Amino acid sequence: MLKVQNIRKVFNEGTVNEKIALDNLSLELKPGDFVTVIGGNGAGKSTLMNAVSGAYPVDEGKILIDGVDVTHLPEYKRAKYIGRVFQDPMMGTAATMQIEENMALAARRGKFRSLLPGITKKERAYYKEQLATLELGLENRMTAKVGLLSGGQRQALTLLMAVLKKPKLLLLDEHTAALDPKTAAKVLETTQKIVEKNNLTTLMITHNMKDAIAFGNRLIMMNNGHIVVDVSGDEKKNLTVKQLLDMFSAASGSDEADDKLLLS
Length: 264
Hints:
By secondary structure, this protein is an alpha/beta fold. Helices cover 36% and strands 23% of the residues.
């Protein structure tokens, strides 16, 4: 479903601030894979996600989504293949619009989008049904302005909007990092439910190693623009945080790994 081939991304090339963010990186995701991504600050996690989404053009390599070469497509043209949830709960929704209006915009992704002549009864019933799956009572507040919702409610709504039209690929960019632990756990539980129900191919960056182990069927760890650990199946299920840190230290050849990962 996703094929990243030998991509390279360099920032400030040729200057004293040159930073190789992605260095000849390759990655393949099969349909239905739920891959968690972890690594220290500056490892290249967000750059990888931005390269896949089209926010950053790559300097070299190819990116294919479901067999379609999207390497040179701008971000807005890739949007029909991708659903994305950002770290900031404010980024995925329009605060001054109602919940049902936000849902309508998400449902009309890839089409000519307008709220005129309005939302039909059939559409409203569908949005209500979908909102009920979040178990947050939002189905009874469909005309409320989204800006009145809590961070957790907004993030759960953003997640639902991202998958309303089933994407080829769901990108979750540390989407629980700005939430308190209890709310983050609820949003992650909702994430797991939505991904499994829709059999979505998912790439999730997380700063939490326990979450990286607990969720998904595969875990990759990045360092200096490379994938240094890639585990799946039973090996992933049985991992401990200590084993993960040991694997990272061995793969990266550095004892500084523990601090970098724990602090991030």
